[in-house]
Design goal:
- This protein is of the alpha/beta class.
- Helices cover 31% and strands 26% of the residues.
- The chain folds into 2 domains: 229 residues, Rossmann fold; 244 residues, P-loop containing nucleotide triphosphate hydrolases (Rossmann fold, 3-Layer(aba) Sandwich).
- Strands 12, 13, 14, 15, 16, 17, 18, 19, 20 and 21 form a 10-stranded mixed beta sheet that branches. A 9-stranded mixed beta sheet has the order 3-2-4-5-1-6-7-8-9, sandwiched between helices. It has a two-stranded antiparallel ribbon with strand order 10-11.
- Helix 6 packs across helix 7 and helix 13 packs parallel to helix 15.
- The longest helix has 18 residues.
Length: 505
């Protein structure tokens, strides 16, 4: 039994971690793997197991660790070809191939097509012999499905895995066992190994396939559970740890800042507050993007760094429209103070999008973000049951970092009943509502602030006008009823603003 003193010593001297070669996976694991243990990496073909194994070995080689890749199913030429697609060289690694020409020798006493107990024993002995000769620090064994076929029955297979586990443990190796999930009854493997990393890929009806990693088990390591998105691209695997806002608290002093429009500031009770988010809601063409661009320009003129995430509109159209309305953002984009990201939502996962925002905030110190719009992002992921929770974590993170966030959400319909794809109003600190209405034979715009957690806002409805002189907000529409419902009735003498040259949203 350990004494309290020995326990305190163990806690003050934690076991150093070994990097997996994937920064995001190390973050999920709280620093990496416990050395000299055996781990299972399971996933369907094409999920990136081989790539992860190579990244693990190459990371070790860069640190002076001897690495061995043992392959039972691929040739060394195939492995080198995979590495070449990522721009890697495997010269620093030892590739031990058990699927060579001799395995296909018709005169051999056993055939790879008829595995036997003798063949399994020879395979195991060859692996052990090579490990004893090379003495690796890191080892990847690819794959267990071949061992399973050679073993022929679960008992013999389990005994061979246990034998390999004890052998590798006595040689002080850190081992990744790769398995392609061809056997659904192989769950007892989870109880043998020290940890289990599961790679999943989901094919959708449209857009690229979605890849996720889940840490099923990891003894002695406090890891971040649940699914985490990852991408398999040229250069290897990039993992995006699930965002937990509570892990990123930052102290800051909220400040009231102008939107660049005196009328808008008055509606909001003074302007936008840093560390809050504002949701601009309305039908297509009402002026949501223009209003957002006006707020963005004001932040840039104050010297803030900003990012604009554009989902629905092309960059050329965006610049042309905003410039025509007196909101010229080109100079700020040219000097790097503003970054405009044109996003294809069909090619993006929630985790990757959240990581993009985190990089902007933590690396570039961005303090103003516009997401325009949420509709395409939401529509691209109709099967995401927990997308609202992900948005909650993302907005909470941005608020805690002192970032001012502006969200654009389009609604269906121009008049009468107007609907939204999703109700995000409860996540927003401030909600601005825009509506069309008709007066004196002309189509006009109305604006009001529905709620604000940051300031005491106006409860009145005003006319909104967009023109070459930017955003203009008129007097309260006290003579109208039903503006918000989309079916306004005129019952007063409120004067409308004089029309100015304007452009489309």
């Amino acid at each position: 039994m350990n004494s309290p003193a020995s326990l305190r010593t163990a806690e003050s001297n934690p076991v150093p971690r070994m990097s997996t070669g994937v920064a995001g996976l190390d973050d999920i694991l709280g620093g990496g793997l416990t050395p000299q243990r055996i781990y299972l990496v399971e996933g369907s073909p094409g999920s990136g197991k081989t790539t992860l194994g190579l990244q693990f070995l190459l990371d070790g080689a860069a640190k002076g660790d001897c690495g061995v890749y043992i392959t039972l199913s691929e040739t060394s030429e195939e492995l080198r070809a995979v590495a070449a697609t990522h721009g890697w060289s495997l010269d620093a690694l030892s590739l031990f191939e058990l699927a060579g020409d001799e395995a296909l020798d018709l005169d051999a006493q056993q055939s790879v097509f008829h595995p036997s107990e003798i063949e399994l024993g020879e395979t195991t002995r060859n692996v052990m012999k090579h490990v004893d000769e090379v003495k690796p620090v890191r080892l990847v064994f690819d794959s267990l499905s071949e061992m399973r076929l050679l073993a022929q029955n679960p008992l013999r297979y389990r005994r061979q895995i246990l034998a390999l586990k004890h052998f590798f443990g006595s040689r002080h190796c850190t081992v990744l066992l790769l398995d392609d999930k061809t056997s659904t009854s192989d769950q007892h493997l989870h109880s043998i190994v020290h940890g289990v990393i599961s790679l999943d890929q989901i094919t959708k009806d449209f857009g690229k396939q979605r890849r996720r990693v889940n840490i099923i088990k990891m003894r002695g390591i406090h890891f971040r559970g649940g699914y985490h998105d990852y991408a398999l691209k040229t250069g290897g695997i990039t993992m995006y740890p699930r965002l937990v806002a509570a892990e990123h608290r930052l102290d800051f002093v909220p400040q009231m800042r102008s939107t660049g429009s005196a009328g808008m500031d008055q509606l909001l009770g003074g302007g936008m507050v840093s560390g809050t988010n504002m949701l601009v809601v309305g039908p297509s063409g009402i002026g949501k993007s223009t209003l957002s661009a006006r707020c963005l320009l004001s932040a840039l003129e104050r010297g803030e760094k900003a990012s604009y995430y554009l989902f629905d509109e092309g960059l050329g159209t965006f610049f042309a429209r905003t410039t025509a309305l007196g909101i010229d953002l080109r100079a700020f984009a040219a000097n790097g103070q503003l970054r405009i990201h044109h996003i294809d939502p069909a090619e993006l996962s929630p985790g990757e999008f959240a990581q993009m925002l985190r990089d902007e905030v933590e690396q570039r110190q961005v303090s103003f973000i516009v997401i325009d719009s949420l509709n395409a992002y939401l529509q691209a992921m109709p099967g995401e049951q927990y997308l609202m929770l992900q948005m909650h974590e993302l907005l909470s993170y941005l608020n805690q970092q002192g970032v001012t966030t502006l969200l654009v959400l389009g609604q269906h319909g121009l008049i009468g009943e107007v609907r939204s794809d999703v109700d995000l109003s409860y996540l927003a600190d401030t909600t601005v509502l825009l509506r069309f209405f008709e007066a004196n034979g002309r189509l006009r715009r109305a604006i009001t602030v529905m709620k604000s957690r940051a300031a005491s806002h106006a409860m009145t409805i005003h006319e909104l006008q967009l023109g070459s002189d930017g955003v203009r907000i008129g007097e309260p529409l006290e003579g109208f009823q039903g503006v918000l419902s989309g079916l306004p009735n005129y019952h007063g003498s409120t004067k409308m603003m004089v029309s100015r040259p304007h452009a489309a949203e």
